[in-house]
């Protein structure tokens, strides 16, 4: 007796489906581990956090790096997530020749409410396996920032991050002398929400 098996797509096949019109412009989908995943709609708290982060991150990043929002990162051979934000190394062609790859990524950020479990259980190993050094989750459910660093693979072949730091709403994250993020202002900017 044979068992039905889901078709897993490569990046090339996924892009070809897009070229053929299989997806619509308004579809919010990602290719994760070969599966086409439809993302959940965003809550008002999620959208508010995105707006606040866009304002703050633009000031912090300036022209020292490239700030990208809800745009693809190519993780060969079969993933193309579209994180809420990514900070990338600057490139002369501004990524016209192709989507950023892990070596281009300085930091990936997700804003999570209904997607929290997915962002923790699926995206942590996905980004760690790709060698992305830093991954942040703005956790709207628990009202804090989760900072993951130092990707690793354990003895069982599973990927994750060695370090996890929780930044509470009354704390400031200092990455270096130039980068400071006040958690409460970045998340939603309203003490009633965070």
Notes on the protein architecture:
Helices cover 24% and strands 29% of the residues. With 194 residues, the protein is α+β, with helices and mostly antiparallel strands. The protein has a six-stranded mixed β-sheet with strand order 3-4-5-6-7-8. Strands 1-2 form a two-stranded antiparallel ribbon. The longest helix is centred in the first third of the chain and has 18 residues, at 44-61. The chain has helices at residues 11-19, 44-61, 116-130, 183-187; strands at 29-32, 35-38, 66-69, 85-88, 105-112, 134-139, 144-153, 159-168, 172-174, 180-182.
How many distinct helices? Answer: 4
Low-confidence stretches: 188-194
**Average of pLDDT:** 88
Strand content: 25-35%
Radius of gyration: 17 Å
Strand numbers in spatial order across the main sheet? 3-4-5-6-7-8
Helix/strand class: alpha+beta
The coarse overall form would be globular
Describe the biggest sheet?
A: 6 strands, mixed
Percent range of helical residues: 10-25%
* Topology, number of strands: 10
List the helices and strands and how they pair.
Elements: H1 11-19, E1 29-32, E2 35-38, H2 44-61, E3 66-69, E4 85-88, E5 105-112, H3 116-130, E6 134-139, E7 144-153, E8 159-168, E9 172-174, E10 180-182, H4 183-187
Parallel strand pairs: 5-6
Antiparallel strand pairs: 1-2, 3-4, 4-5, 6-7, 7-8, 9-10
